[in-house]
């Protein structure tokens, strides 16, 4: 007789509440920084450098934060990273200097991704192999919805913007309350095996390229599209509505795209996504100054850019053999995704000196290249394909351990 293990959210509800509050604050501040800098007269290059610092901190966190967590424990580490993040938020409201803000963004990125690693490793500790997919799906839904709520909060505030940094700090503190009261056993973090990008490129080149370009799109979306909207429409309300619509479009498209990719294959879906983003980018270039069209194009953009990283991980699962560690490969893909997010504000910020709508020109160019590159790759036989799994657009290094496909490998 087979006894089915019961699935209950109650033991890990505190983790989901913490994730929700963090994502609301993260989404609000990440979008607001570029808007506020533009309103204060900063150049697009300076805005790109400051926003890129956040993702540089994220890359550093994926390398170094595990040692901190392993040495002092999850709860102490969570309190430490949360404190650093709050210091970063409140520091913005104390003194404005572009270099100082870049340092604060670096610290915030390091702390935020450290917090994600802690929460994801805890979720993994409480996940049985049979329930891991459900927990990852709930994590994905909470992340997208919370990030969308963060965009709506942009509609409140004063001209100075100080209230946003205060609200962001309060939200992080709420997450600390839930974690401080948790009774969940602290897991032991296994050392990360270091994979080189050239090695992963030789194993799964399309997956690596899709991860980097997907990171470029999402990083550019959060950091530089708000700047373009302020330049074009001069309204933070337009920023708020556009960002919310795009993120909701991303959430609603995850499952249909997953079903299609299981039927048609990742190669075709990555190619389709690339060409779809190219068409949407052309739409932005032609209709960017019409507000209603801009919102519709935003929803379509969310459908295209947020699915690339999950498709990349699925492609890697399809092509690696059983002797490879898919968890470590997934972490390397996430690292490439972070590099793309880091590169986006730097390249787009500099490119706007050539063209005002350079962000959509860069999206158009990269998406076409990705589409044709995907079609040039070898098709994976149906019997070798894994099952698509939805993954949050912003994940920590431990999200790979939550992927149920890792157990199968």
UniProtKB/TrEMBL annotation:
A Pfam family the protein falls into: MFS_1
SUPFAM superfamilies assigned to the protein according to its UniProt record, in alphabetical order: MFS general substrate transporter (SSF103473)
CDD domains: MFS_YcaD_like
MF terms (GO), sorted A to Z: transmembrane transporter activity
Bilayer topology term: Multi-pass membrane protein
TM helices/strands, residue ranges: 12-33, 45-65, 77-96, 102-123, 135-154, 160-179, 200-229, 235-257, 269-288, 294-312, 333-352, 358-375
Keyword Cell membrane: yes
GO cellular component: plasma membrane
PROSITE patterns the record matches: MFS, SUGAR_TRANSPORT_1
Primary subcellular site in the record, as a coarse category: membrane
Domain annotation Major facilitator superfamily (MFS) profile: ranges: 203-409
Keyword Cytoplasm: no
Domain of life, source organism: Bacteria
PANTHER family in the cross-refs: TRANSPORTER MFS SUPERFAMILY
Entry protein name: MFS transporter
